Amino acid sequence: MKELVSVIGGGACAPEDYARAREVGRLLAERGYGVVTGGLGGVMEAAHRGAHEAGGLTIAVLPGSMREAANPYAEVVLTTGLADARNVIVATSGRAVVAVGGSFGTLSEMAFALKHNIPVIGLESWTLPEHRLPTEGVRTAASPAEAVDLVDQFVRGNSG
Q1: Which residue, 19, 42, 45, 86, could crosslink 80 as a Cys pair with Cβ 3.0–4.6 Å?
Q2: So what's the pLDDT on residue 6?
Q3: Low-confidence residues of the chain, pLDDT below 70?
Q4: Which CATH number fits domain 4-156: 3.40.50.720, 3.30.450.40, 3.40.50.450, 1.10.150.120?
Q5: Ramachandran category for residue 116: left, alpha or beta (phi over 0 → left; psi -120 to 50 → alpha)
Q6: Among the listed residues 102, 49, 108, the one whose alpha carbon sits nearest the alpha carbon of residue 84
């Protein structure tokens, strides 16, 4: 069974977050992980793009019922019709979660993952000190490579 990792972040994102998410997706695919996202644009598209370019499996969990809404790099598209409630599915589908940037939807996915004892790695996300939110259980990564190394530690028990 292929191990899945959820990559979460905003549908609209800064170019730096897009580049980080694309690199995370690429590195995850190169290490054999499938990449689950919310399936839309921004960070979700970038993670799928990186994974797709590296030959990896990409899974989109859409908020609506229109398959056409998925980003062009989504290989498996799941329509839910659940709107924001689909965040639970995205957050709990992976063995680990990598959060890149993001807004309140990303924060909700982080909370759902933590509630289900799924490790969360923040990459320029809600783990930043100025948010002053409880982030117990969230590991911070300084780069996409460090984020994927942490995924390996949590999921496979090795350092990459």
Answers
A1: 86
A2: 98
A3: 127-136, 158-160
A4: 3.40.50.450
A5: alpha
A6: 108
